[in-house]
Design brief:
This protein has about 325 residues and is of the alpha+beta class. The chain contains seven helices and 13 strands. It has one domain: Jelly Rolls, CATH 2.60.120.620. The structure holds 2-oxoglutaric acid (AKG). 2-oxoglutaric acid (AKG) binds near residues 122 and 212.
Length: about 325
């Protein structure tokens, strides 16, 4: 049976319709304080004990911290994944009987830290294919556009264009022939742009093809912590040819097979006891050679670009 708590309220038909049309919705007061507290404790743990991957992706800017797969190391985040109602909302949005947890990603920007998140589509980073996918972005601190609230281009999940993965420091943007994402701010009037003022408890939910990004944190007093939770439905298959960025940890999925197994645990309609049991194993030992190679290649690309242009990464945006 499912361990996930039933939500106090389901998403309304209006919210589901808006998600389908815009590829993003903001829902006020959806997340109860106990889940926020668990996220805060999990983020504290990750900040005090970053993974190798986290240290690599965060090292370029002091006061910017990104990390992922927190749920593998933090019992708070593991419990959030299994016991919170997120999976039920994901089930509604994806219209999928089966809901698997894909991964979590933490983004922390200390007060005044100029670390914009470039405009991107998440799917460019994911070696998977299918339709039933969604992300929840959960801020723990009040956010506005200036304090690095996440910004979206509404309807962009329906564009035919796919963009190359561009992350802070250009990680992963190395092996792709796809065009760079557009500089949305340079031509903001051309886009149906959305950014909401949010309080803790509010959440944005978005499709992985929806173009999004955020400025640095211009608030000099308030830090900005957020956790993204990513979910998959039953139509999603492993597709390594879809992204130059490999899944960073060991898994048993083969190209074309449904994404499954202990790295992507099933939460609905019921959990799988053997997947839960696997969670106890450490994570650093699971880092794959492919990921280590991608990190090394991306470091080389950034270094070369730095020597050529005087800055890391070739991708420029107006923030
Ligand atoms: O919090 C941010 O700045 C980035 C979040 C993001 O890009 C995501 O959750 O996909």
């Amino acid at each position: 049976m499912s361990l996930a708590a039933s939500p106090l309220r389901k998403l309304t038909q209006e919210e589901l319709d808006a998600y389908k049309k815009d590829g993003v919705i903001m829902v006020k007061g959806l997340i109860e304080p106990n889940w926020l507290e668990m996220i805060a404790l999990g983020i504290d743990e990750a900040l005090n004990n970053a993974s190798l991957y986290g240290r690599y992706v965060s090292h370029k800017v002091e006061g910017y911290n990104m990390d992922s797969y927190l749920w593998k190391r933090s019992d708070y985040i593991r419990d959030l994944i299994y016991y919170s109602p997120f999976a039920h909302w994901a089930q509604q949005l994806m219209a999928s009987e089966e809901v698997r947890f894909f991964y979590d990603q933490m983004f922390v920007k200390e007060p005044g830290v100029d670390a914009p998140t470039p405009w991107h589509q998440d799917l460019s980073f994911w070696p998977i294919k299918g339709h039933q996918m969604c992300s929840f972005w959960v801020p723990l601190d009040p956010v506005t556009q200036d304090s690095s609230g996440l910004q979206y281009v509404k309807g962009s999940h329906m564009w035919s264009e796919r963009y190359r993965p561009v992350a802070p420091g250009n990680i992963g943007g190395i092996d792709s022939d796809l065009p760079a994402p557009p500089d949305v701010h340079a031509n903001i009037d051309n886009y149906d742009h959305a950014c909401w003022d949010m309080e803790p408890g509010d959440v944005t939910i978005f499709h992985p093809l929806t173009l999004h990004g955020s400025s640095g944190n211009k608030n000099r007093k308030q830090k900005r912590r957020a956790l993204a939770l990513r979910w998959l439905g039953e139509d999603v298959v492993h597709a390594p040819d879809m992204s130059p960025v490999p899944i960073p940890y060991k898994h048993d999925n083969t190209p074309g097979s449904p994404v499954a197994g202990p790295l992507f645990p099933r939460i609905l309609p019921s959990h799988i006891p053997s997947e839960r049991a696997q969670r106890a194993k450490g994570i650093e030992s699971l880092l794959t050679i492919d990921t280590a190679k991608t990190m090394a290649k991306s470091a080389m690309t950034s270094a070369k670009s730095f020597l050529r242009n005087g800055q890391a990464g070739e991708h420029k945006e107006t923030w």
